[in-house]
C-alpha cells in the first residue's frame, strides 16, 4: 500500500483559520489608535450642534474655546461686575491627550453661537499623530466635517 504525502483538507482549513484570525487581530489593533480620537470628535461635534440649537432658541450667546487641555463650552454672562465667559458643565469623558486643535488657548471662544446663528464662519483643524479632521462652520449654522490622513 502506497502512502500519499501531503496535507489533508482539514489541516489546510485549520491553518487558514489561524492565519485569518491573526490578520483580523492585527488590523483591529492598527485601527485602535484612531478610534478614541474619532469618538471624541464625534461627541464634541454633537455637543456643538446642540449648543448652536440652544443659543438659537434661548437667545443666549454660547461658544466653544480651547483651554489648553480640552475644548470647553462657555456662556456669556453680562451680570454683575465685569462681563465674562463662564464655563458650562464639563465633559463626562476624558479628552484624548494627543488630540489638539490648530487654534490657541483663549479666554474668548473661537466659535460663537448667537440667537441669529453663527457669529462668523469658522474653520478649525483637529490634529493627532495619525491624522487630522477639518471642521468648517458655515454662516447658516451647519458643520461640515472632513477627515484627512
Automatic annotation (TrEMBL):
GO cellular component terms attached to this protein's record: type II protein secretion system complex
Name this protein carries in UniProt: Type II secretion system protein GspH
The encoding gene: gspH
SUPFAM superfamilies: Pili subunits (SSF54523)
Gene3D superfamilies, per the entry: minor pseudopilin epsh domain
Annotated InterPro entries: N_methyl_site, Pilin-like, TypeII_GspH
Domain of life: Bacteria
UniProt organism field: Pseudomonas karstica
Gene Ontology biological process terms in this record: protein secretion by the type II secretion system
Amino acid at each position: 500500500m502506497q502512502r500519499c504525502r501531503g496535507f489533508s483538507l482539514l489541516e489546510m482549513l485549520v491553518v487558514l483559520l489561524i492565519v485569518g484570525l491573526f490578520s483580523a487581530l492585527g488590523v483591529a489593533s492598527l485601527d485602535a489608535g484612531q478610534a478614541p480620537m474619532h469618538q471624541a470628535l464625534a461627541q464634541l461635534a454633537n455637543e456643538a450642534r446642540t449648543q448652536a440649537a440652544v443659543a438659537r432658541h434661548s437667545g443666549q450667546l454660547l461658544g466653544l474655546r480651547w483651554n489648553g487641555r480640552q475644548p470647553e463650552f462657555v456662556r456669556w454672562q453680562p451680570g454683575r461686575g465685569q462681563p465674562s465667559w463662564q464655563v458650562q458643565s464639563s465633559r463626562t469623558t476624558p479628552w484624548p491627550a494627543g488630540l489638539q486643535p490648530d487654534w490657541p488657548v483663549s479666554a474668548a471662544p473661537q466659535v460663537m453661537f448667537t440667537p441669529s446663528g453663527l457669529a462668523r464662519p469658522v474653520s478649525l483643524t483637529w490634529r493627532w499623530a495619525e491624522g487630522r479632521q477639518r471642521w468648517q462652520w458655515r454662516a447658516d449654522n451647519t458643520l461640515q466635517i472632513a477627515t484627512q490622513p
